[in-house]
Known about the structure:
The chain has 570 residues and is mostly beta strands. The protein is 12% helix and 39% strand. It has ten helices and 36 strands. The strands form eleven sheets. It has a four-stranded antiparallel β-sheet, with no helix packed on it. The chain has a four-stranded antiparallel β-sheet with strand order 6-7-10-11, with no helix packed on it. It has a four-stranded antiparallel β-sheet with strand order 12-13-14-15. The longest helix has 11 residues, at 363-373. It starts with a strand and ends with a strand.
Amino acid sequence: MAQAQPTECFRGIGVKPGPIANGNCTAGGVPRTMQDYVWGFATAEDQKSLWFGTWSSGLCDNFTAYNNFLTVAGLNFPDTLQSKEVTCEWSHSWNAQQNPDLGITGDQRQPYIYQYDIHSNRLIDRSPYSDPLFATTGGFRAAGAANGVMFVAGLQTSPDLASGQGGQVNLFAFRESDGAYLGSHTYPQYSNVKVVKKIDGQLYMGVGLGTPEGPGSTSHATNGHLLKWVGNVNDPFQWQIVGRFGSQPTYLTEFEGRMIVSAWPAGPTDLTQADLGQEAAALFTSPRLSTRPNGILPADKNNWKRDWGFDDFYPDPTTAAAGAGGTGMEQVGNWLYFGKSNFPGSSTFFHMGRLPDIAPKTFPAFMRWFNRLEVGGELFRVRHLGQPNQQVQVLYGKYRYWTLDDNGQWHHERNLLHQRPLYGKPGFGQKFNYYIGWGSATFRGKAYFGGMDLTRVMREISTNPNTDFISSIFGYRVSPLELRYLNRLLPSDESQDGFPIWTVSSPNQPAKPLTNSGFNNAEQWGARDFFPIGNKEMFIGTQGGSNYPTKAASDPPRRAGWQLLKYQPR
Length: 570
């Protein structure tokens, strides 16, 4: 229904991008699509339109998050990356040369805010270009609406943006009835935002703290707040703190009469500790909503219960703390299904950072660690959460996980639930399907879970000897023969490159694939957001981290950048 367009012309690494008009380069170069994430997404309350923000250069910016771990492990951050699908210039970009403070985040570009009118199939640019705060926002990660106001929340442009920790949270407000811009507000005390969602009639926003506070709902330092909106269309920027957590609230839902927060690790990372100094991702439950007719209150901010964490599943504490955390939550029968996102390479690099003296310094040694520590995302379900009869089941995961002790000794240990997965392997059987439930929804009686599959990235960049990507990291020429070891981990069928979506229709049946190929578009790696419109259709916002190609004759077009898809089951 809509997709990102080329915004500049690439004319060489370090060269000023050229102008573009109607998709054509007027002064030489190759059309380059920089906006590749539909990052924050919401439906208007009347369900007549969709609102979403974008983020640029997802592949290049995400990789900057590895810089510290590569340094600690004695490896190198690559200078540049050039392939047929993406260019990462990092600190060598024209932008970074003009503004050295950007450093390796020189591939960032100004994001956009869009409204999509469902009835007229019209995409409207709502970006507030005249607002100085908009110009300093590096990406819009969350959106939500209540009482006639649509909020779009973004992260301040910062060299730390790629790791999810921006300089501050910037919030932009619009009037839903006509899209009029209501203004913006910055929250310097917060460094990250992931979710804005309406639960039981109230609008909530989950944010990460720039500076930790004293303990809140757990004995751990507070690194995240849950905020409740108490403003209105005339005074929109009024929020109350109603939850304090050791980690950051990133997904919200209602289940068994309570609000459920799925929180991701947040706060300072201490690589000398097995648990990195962070509280592992977890599920928190609120007081009963039936006793809170006006929603969760400020008096409840320290009264949330941490009822289950991923440190209750992984036998290795570094693996438990390194992964991103829980993802979309959907009720199937009397179970709450929830996925797991494992940040690509995080377990390997966090172990290398924690154990720099024994960390692998050659590619074959690195691959031995990588093959043991890297797993796709898992899928779980829970019921009676926080009650004496609480049940947590592993649906897709592993019975045994590799652990690495301080002496460099490997152990193959059972997961801490001592359960064999009921239905299958992590990633729905795909090793590089790192996120299960990155986006999710319940539509026509089925729960949909979208994923992020980096098989295409591994195939076209990491295992491609023409990019020199791996060689630049290890500081010596990694031979094609050595790269074949990594290539053997990839599925042989390239037609299955692209994001997966799996559905669950009954608690008595395994999940089933809707697509494993991004609906036949390998340039689309992630199914980021799902929004049903009644019982008729569902919209899907995607993530496609490539810059090229921008034009193709195949059907559907294998285009770079984000896409907005409309899904109508037969």
